[in-house]
Amino acid sequence: MNLNSISNSELLSRTENLVHQEREILTSVLHHLQEVNRRRLFSYYGFKSLFDFAVLKLGYSNDAAYRRIAAMKLMSEIPEVESKINSGEITLTHLSMAQTLFRQEKIEKLKGYLPYKHPGNTIGELFVKLCDLGLSEWDPSKPLKKKSAKFGAPQKTKSDVVAGSSNAADPLEKQSKITTPARRFVFRRANNSCENCQSTFALEVDHIIPKSKGGSSNTENLRLLCKSCNQRAAIAKIGIKTMEKYIT
Predict the structure, then answer these.
(1) Number of domains in the chain
(2) Among the listed residues 46, 52, 15, the one whose alpha carbon sits nearest the alpha carbon of residue 33
(3) Higher confidence at residue 47 or residue 134?
(4) Which of 54, 70, 219, 229 could form a disulfide with 65 if both were Cys (CB 3.0 to 4.6 A apart)?
(5) What is the 3-state secondary structure (H, E, C) of the chain?
(6) Which residues pair with 206 in a beta bridge?
(7) In degrees to the nearest 10, what's the CA dihedral of 23, 27, 29, 31?
(8) Which residue range(s) make up the domain with 39?
(9) What is the tens place of the pLDDT at every residue in 51-102?
(10) Which residues on adjacent β-strands are paired with residue 226?
(11) Is residue 77 part of a domain?
């Protein structure tokens, strides 16, 4: 492009217009990334996350992808951000810094809970404690805590269930549930990773043919998917409108 022949005023005018268009394109890109994420389309291409999709499919650098996704999330939570991007009041760098500051504020609050028992905790030590807490509280193999019965509440007896009371479990419904041995078999068969994108995060056992369409809970009709791929599969089967409440 040769700009040598244009006047100073035209050059400045064109530059201002291009900068304005660039900001509008940026917010349009953020909206498109938001919709790709809402539809879980990155799972359609076998990517583990929107970040991987942005880097490996769209060609962004790691830093550029991170800043755009951070801005996308913040724009979703605070719609007023969009007008500030368009006006140039804030940039992607500002938004990513804001996200970092929000996280830092939460971390400092957590550190403040342990000043006496664990004085002088570093961020690394705090992270280890949070991991230990998570493993202790969220371990699926850990027995569930029994809830004590409320005083005076009527208790169901074995005879009530056998007699076929309205609270008795439906035998057909029970048969359609995934048994623990079947669940373990599916995890082992898939080598503890998503069968679509190979992610090991938030794994769920999915019915290939949905139960609502007559699908059984036999291992032949089960597969292991991560949460995003499972949601994408459900969107493809029953539509985004039905799945909207579960995704959000």
Answers:
(1) 2
(2) 52
(3) 47
(4) 54
(5) CCCCCCCHHHHHHHHHHHHHHHHHHHHHHHHHHHHHHHCCHHHHCCCCCHHHHHHHHCCCCHHHHHHHHHHHHHHHHCCCHHHHHHHCCCCHHHHHHHHHHHHHHHHHHHHHCCCCCCCCCCHHHHHHHHHHHHHHHHCCCCCCCCCCCCCCCCCCCHHHHHCCCCCCCCHHHHHHCCCHHHHHHHHHHCCCCCCCCCCCCCEEEEECCCHHHCCCCCHHHEEEEEHHHHHHHHHHHHCHHHHHHHHC
(6) 223
(7) -170
(8) 9-90
(9) 999 999 999 999 999 989 988 888 888 888 888 888 888 888 777 776 666 6
(10) 203
(11) yes
Question: Six-digit token pair at 8?
Answer: 């100073």
User: Over the stretch 207-216, which tens digit does the pLDDT of each residue have?
Assistant: 998 888 888 9
Is 160 inside any structural domain?
Answer: no
Nearest to 219 by CA among 180, 247, 164: 180
Contacts 24+ apart (CB under 8 A), 49-54: 49/199, 49/228
Q: And the tokens for 114? A: 């342990």
Classify residue 103: in a domain, yes or no. Answer: no
Which of 71, 90, 109 marks a domain boundary?
90
Q: Is residue 136 part of a domain?
A: no
Residues 6+ apart with CB under 8 A from 221: 207, 208, 209, 215
List Cα–Cα distances, 185 to 53, 167, 189, 219, 230, in angstroms.
30, 31, 6, 8, 18
